[in-house]
TrEMBL record:
GO cellular component term of the entry, any: plasma membrane
Subcellular location: Membrane
Regions crossing the membrane: 235-258, 270-291, 311-330, 447-467, 479-498, 519-539
GO terms of molecular function: zinc ion transmembrane transporter activity
Classification via InterPro entries: ZIP (IPR003689)
Record-given protein name: Zinc transporter 3
Lipid bilayer topology: Multi-pass membrane protein
The organism's place on the tree of life at top rank: Eukaryota
């Protein structure tokens, strides 16, 4: 009996050992089946319930942290990090796990799922006015300031991330290259400048004066830099182009003077149309160029807040009044001079006073044009130079047509002849203004009056070259000087352009265009509008 009991106990122990071994083998087999062989690559990737599933043979693997943007259809170069498996795609890598491993296991390793540099960031959102996006569980700040802070206006993702030196940049939906920085890190902003602009700043030009704001900032919301921006300047090029401006300005202002001297009287219509083109040039220069530029100067943040918002308009109004005052006093003096010396030449005519006032208004801003042209950075200099070249030629034509007419009688005045009243006035009062229109203004005198315009912009350029390394267009005193002269010049040209040129030719009782035929009147009006349009278009760059 005892032997039987011992045998039973031994059999039970053997059975227990065998069962335990069998269970262990089954568990190991189950684990092995779940884990599968270590893959070298996975492919045939698809998305199921927001999770990317790929295959290695017949075994399915789950991508623990799915990349954003366009999902890869396969991953290669699979390898081990300790006990975890990672595979490569593009410039990054992701962790993979057998699809049979519980999600909790995947969740516990998510923090380490994405390594290397981001290839794309998504789930973009706002913290205040700053854009942040996600790369896996890591949050990155997008170094740009949105112009529209509505949630629907924020890009959902930035793709094709790449390195510039030690910094990471991604492509925005509009194609812009924007820097991303891991939360808590600082932007290096190195190795990703345009070569011409200071690092971390965006610079552009208003009225030839440089304005800089921080990277990614708009001018209205960004932090304006008022410091001088150091740039490389091609000085030999600037010196050479001084003479180009000189020749162009001289051609513009001298051409009408020689044309009216050598042109047959029957082609007077061409000169009349050219005069109206010049009138349009002057009016557009006053409003689009000078008035607008003065407003930009007085609106510059580097100047600070103005205590009086109407500063620009007040100075323009002062320029208008100053022009009126000079012309009124000048014409009174001319009449007094002629009364005491009836044989005085036509250089004392009221038209001469008007032309001199016009030239002063042009000269004031032409010297500023020369300075601001030269101090513009090389990236903008040639564009601005071409615009100024046309500006000087057209403005020279406008001034030259008025100088050319000094001492001239128009064909309509010659054809009309003196009225009975005029004959009586001439016989009884030789100092009558009608007697001042005798052609007694020599070519030399006209050229002398025109020459300052030809010289003033090149002189401004020479001054600009001299102060090139010291000029700061955002200096407070510089802003006030440029803004004041621009506004004052605008007022002078408004008076001369509207009153002495436009109204004089079209509206006064003795206006020449009140007596011309329909075709000539139409062509003159077309010339007037063309001058306005052309100069206004040039105002986009100058």
């Amino acid at each position: 009996m005892a032997k039987l009991t011992v045998a039973a106990v031994a059999f039970a122990a053997l059975l227990s050992t065998t069962s335990g071994s069998l269970v262990a083998r089954q568990t190991a087999a189950s684990t092995t089946a779940a884990a599968g062989p270590d893959p070298t690559a996975i492919s045939q990737c698809s998305v199921s319930s927001s999770t990317q599933i790929c295959k290695a043979g017949t075994t399915e693997f789950r991508v623990v942290s799915t990349p954003t943007g366009t999902l890869p259809s396969s991953y290669t170069g699979c390898h081990k990090h300790a006990t975890d498996t990672y595979c490569f795609f593009g410039d990054g890598e992701v962790q993979i796990q057998p699809a049979g491993v519980p999600a909790a296991t995947a969740a516990s390793t998510t923090a380490a799922a994405v390594t290397g540099a981001p290839t794309a960031v998504s789930d973009c959102h706002l913290h205040g006015v700053t854009v942040f996006c996600m790369w896996g569980t890591s949050e990155y700040q997008v170094m740009t300031t949105p112009t529209n802070t509505a949630a629907s206006a924020i890009p959902t993702a930035f793709t094709d991330c790449h390195a510039h030196g030690a910094d990471t940049y991604c492509i925005a939906p509009n194609g812009d290259d924007v820097e991303i920085v891991a939360e808590g890190a600082e932007s290096g902003d190195s190795g990703h400048t345009d070569g011409e602009e200071p690092q971390g700043e965006n610079c552009h030009f208003h009225a030839g004066v440089e304005h800089c704001v921080g990277a990614g900032e708009s001018e209205s919301s960004g932090t304006r830099s008022c410091e001088k921006v150091d740039r490389d300047y091609n000085i030999p090029l600037r010196i050479g182009l001084v003479f180009v401006i000189l020749v162009t300005s001289a051609f513009g202002v001298y051409f009408p003077i020689f044309m009216i001297k050598w042109m047959p009287t029957k082609t007077h219509t061409i000169f009349l149309i050219l005069k109206q083109f010049g009138t349009g040039i002057i009016i557009s220069t006053a409003f689009v160029h000078l008035y607008t530029h003065a407003q930009l100067m007085f609106g510059n943040e580097c100047l600070g807040a103005l205590g009086y918002e109407g500063t620009t308009s007040a100075i323009v109004m002062a320029g208008i009044f100053l022009s009126f005052l000079v012309e009124y006093v000048g014409k009174r003096m001319v009449m007094k001079k002629m009364a005491s010396n009836p044989s005085a030449s036509s250089r004392f005519s009221p038209e001469t006073v008007t032309v001199l006032v016009l030239e002063c208004g042009i000269i004031f801003h032409s010297i500023l044009i020369g300075i601001t042209l030269v101090v513009a950075g090389d990236t903008f200099f040639l564009t601005l130079f071409v615009v100024i070249l046309f500006h000087q030629m057209f403005e020279g034509i406008a001034l030259g047509t008025r100088i050319a007419q000094l001492g001239q009688l128009s064909p309509t005045e010659k054809a009309a002849g003196p009225t009975t009243v005029e004959v009586e006035q001439t016989s009884s009062a030789p100092n009558s203004l009608n007697s001042l229109k005798a052609p007694n203004f020599s070519l030399v005198k006209k050229l002398i009056i025109a020459t300052p315009f030809a010289l003033v912009t090149p002189i401004g350029m020479a001054i600009g070259i001299g102060v090139l390394q010291h000029f700061n267009g955002n200096d407070r005193d510089t802003i006030i000087a440029i803004g004041t002269l621009d506004a004052l010049s605008a007022g002078i040209l408004v008076w001369v352009g509207v009153v002495e040129m436009w109204a004089e030719d079209w509206m006064h009782n003795d206006a020449e265009l009140l007596r011309t035929g329909p075709l000539v009147t139409f062509l003159a009006g077309l010339g007037l509008i063309s001058g306005m349009i052309i100069m206004s278009v040039l105002g986009k760059w100058a």
